[in-house]
Specification:
about 450 residues, alpha/beta, Rossmann fold, 2 domains, seven-stranded mixed sheet, 13 helices, 14 strands, binds guanosine-5'-triphosphate, binds 2-acetamido-2-deoxy-beta-D-glucopyranose, transmembrane helix, signal, glycosyltransferase, GDP-Fuc_O-FucTrfase, peptide-O-fucosyltransferase activity
């Protein structure tokens, strides 16, 4: 076949080239979205932050192998820390660590580093929760790519003392190989999200065991420089998991508008799903969004997140075979009288072929190369999540943070928890415990 099929939507067309409509609309989605501010004046400070005095910047990074969705979780912990610092009177701003070099983002030869948060999330929405700046804004405000102090977080070499867990934090010698090295001028060089010109003035290791706010006194008193970066920030735990503060930050992590538009258009076109009919109307200003639990109906399709790759390489007993998954999918479609199924998956080409053979009617979001260049792997993942979040019934994969983020999105949209907190069972799994319902707190 001479032309690219943009979306493999077997139910609508098999080998015809009806792609141009979608091709245009993805460009249109990018073009249509101007950074309009939907928040009323009280919610967000739009005054140039740099004008303030004694401003301090918190930067952070995460262990390189961690994926997109765990990183989103670490953002919540860091936002919580900044809120604590600000409550204590410090004028702190959170610097958004550019996306890139993620292990899973391997789509061929497109450059997927130095991606600003604005490509994936609505910055004005984040701003309404806690002051944030993109990394390049930090460089501009800071007068150069210099970070005063990097603190590499680590556990305690000796583990828990007296076999007891207690909160503690101490400056300690680094015990892992340091990922920073001194240059000729005495500055520290490192990954820094792919910004080679970035340098740190000082790097030290800190053993930390505790919640994110354990850092607050240390940042206020021990390291009084302007910019401090926490590396291996995932070492710090959530202050309160799934409490009001957690949910405020989570709700503020609104996907970038162009990605939502593309997802919505796809739903309308291939899944007969619109917000008005499905009762999933989204408020552009998240601070005003409060859907009643059970109020969302969702589009007439089953949403599926089927995590493969490293989840099957380890032969985990809580992950199904493809055959097992298809059996569950067909049962659920019958049970909920749904004729369509949307599948989000990271399955490889072989497995996809197998899946398509067993489930010829499945609907997938499969961008062309050109679209992928615009959206990047992260954008495609978000669109997959957005579509799964609007399904009448959702089933995900056991302990996948990708699935967890879909649970949260559905919680925000107001779905009945019964339609959300579901997962596949392994073929031979005896006790198939279903995911926990984390109720939204306003
Ligand atoms: N587009 C798309 N990408 C997926 C899907 N499942 C996994 N991925 C990709 O694989 C990556 C791994 O999943 P993540 O959840 O981000 O990684 P993680 O934080 O290690 O989380 P889990 O491994 O799922 O617990 C995602 O970031 C995506 O890039 C999917 O259904 N659709
Ligand atoms: C911070 O300073 C206090 C008081 O000087 C000291 O006791 C503590 O060990 C320091 N903590 C860290 C993590 O540097
Ligand atoms: C680097 O930081 C450590 C720990 O705070 C401090 O003891 C040391 O003096 C700093 N070095 C420089 C060159 O500022
Ligand atoms: C889409 O859904 C509406 C409302 O449920 C229904 O009336 C219509 O027939 C559906 N259209 C298609 C093409 O299935």
């Amino acid at each position: 076949m001479a032309c690219t099929v943009f979306y493999i939507v077997a139910i609508y067309f098999s080998s015809t080239c009806s792609f141009s409509v979608f091709f245009l609309s993805i460009f249109a989605a990018f073009a249509a979205v101007k950074s309009e501010n939907v928040f009323s004046a009280g919610h967000t400070s739009t005054a140039p932050i740099a004008a303030a005095r004694d401003l301090r910047y918190l930067l952070y990074d995460v262990n390189p192998p961690e994926g997109f969705n765990l990183r989103r979780d670490v953002y919540i912990r860091m936002a919580s820390l900044v809120k604590t610092l600000r409550k204590e009177g410090g004028d702190w701003v959170l610097v958004l660590p550019p996306w890139g070099r993620l292990y899973h983002w391997q789509s061929s030869d497109i450059d997927q580093t130095r991606i600003p948060w604005g490509e994936f999330f609505s910055i004005t929405s984040l701003q309404a929760n806690v002051p944030v700046v993109e990394y390049e804004e930090f460089i501009a405000e800071n007068g150069g790519p210099f970070i005063d102090q990097v603190l590499v977080l680590q556990n305690y070499a000796e583990g828990w003392t007296n076999g007891k867990w207690e909160e503690k934090i101490d400056e300690r010698p680094c015990f892992d190989k340091l990922m920073y090295s001194k240059d000729k001028q005495g500055y520290y060089r490192g990954w820094f999200w792919g910004y080679e010109e970035t340098r740190a003035r000082n790097v030290t290791c800190v053993s930390a065991q505790g919640h994110a706010s354990i850092m607050a006194p240390v940042l206020q008193r021990n390291y009084t420089v302007t910019s401090v970066m926490l590396d291996r920030a995932e070492t710090l735990l959530h202050d309160v998991y799934a409490g009001k503060d957690y949910w405020d930050t989570r709700r503020s992590m609104v996907f970038a508008k162009h990605l939502r538009l593309i997802g919505d258009e796809f739903r309308a076109k291939y899944l007969n799903s619109t917000d008005d009919r499905d009762l999933t109307v989204y408020r552009e200003d998240w601070t005003r969004m409060k859907a009643k639990p059970g109020s969302a109906k969702g589009g007439p399709y089953l949403g599926v997140h089927l995590r493969r790759k490293d989840f099957i390489w380890g032969h985990r007993e809580d992950v199904p075979s493809l055959k097992g998954a298809v059996k569950t999918i067909l049962n659920l479609m019958k049970k909920h009288m749904l004729e369509k199924v949307f599948i989000a998956t990271d399955a490889d080409g072989e497995e996809l072929k197998e899946l398509k053979a067993m489930l010829p009617r499945m609907v997938r979001f499969e961008p062309s190369r050109e679209d992928l260049e615009l959206l990047k792997d992260g954008g495609v993942a978000i669109i997959d999540q957005w579509i799964c979040s609007h399904a009448r019934f959702f089933i995900g994969t056991s302990v996948s943070t990708f699935s967890f983020r879909i649970h949260e999105e559905r919680e925000i949209l107001g779905f009945d928890p019964k339609t959300t907190y579901n997962r596949f069972c392994g073929d031979a799994e005896k006790e198939c415990e279903q995911p926990t319902h984390w109720k939204i707190v306003y």
